[in-house]
Amino acid sequence: MATYENHTAQDALRYVEGFKEQAHLRSTLMPGWYGPVAAATVTAPAAGQAWASGRGGLWLLASLLLPFAGLAAILILVRTARRRTGVVVSQPLAARLRRRWLALASVLVADLVVLALCLQFDIGRNGTLLLTSVTSGIGAWIVVAVRNASIRQRLQDLA
């Protein structure tokens, strides 16, 4: 009788652990709107700087503030996406970077390739800034899409 009870308790514990892992995976899914908005948020400051570069005066000051506004918008988007799941688990920055090093490295390599091409074809400073920002934005969108696809696959495997 004790063996049967132990076996049932182990099954129940595995069942609970499976639900716990599924809840954790669902909490890490990013909403579908996050990728395009992140791409636009990364690109908008560079577009604003390129537009304001020849204008001078107040526009120049505004263009210097745009990257900080873009960074603040990205941080707000990340926090909003996390809070929408109902589960907010903070991890140290080092742990998050360790988990995402491949994605960050691939976006950085894409940016470096675009930078090299811009230098090769003598595209101006504003064009180079805009193209590398667009590359970063598209890279961020792709990273979100790939991450969500991986999480959905793991959820299907658990179901």
What features would you describe in this structure?
This protein is mainly alpha-helical. It has one domain. The protein is 85% helix and 0% strand. The protein contains six helices and no strands. α1 runs antiparallel to α6 (125-158), α2 (34-52) packs antiparallel against α3 (57-84) and α5 (101-120) runs antiparallel to α6 (125-158). The radius of gyration is 22 Å and the shape is elongated. The mean pLDDT is 79.
Q: Tell me the radius of gyration.
A: 22 Å
Structural class: mainly alpha
Number of helices: 6
**Would you tell me the overall average pLDDT?**
79
Order of helices and strands: HHHHHH
- Detail the poorly predicted runs: none
What does the secondary structure layout of this molecule look like, with pairings?
Blueprint: H1 2-28, H2 34-52, H3 57-84, H4 93-99, H5 101-120, H6 125-158
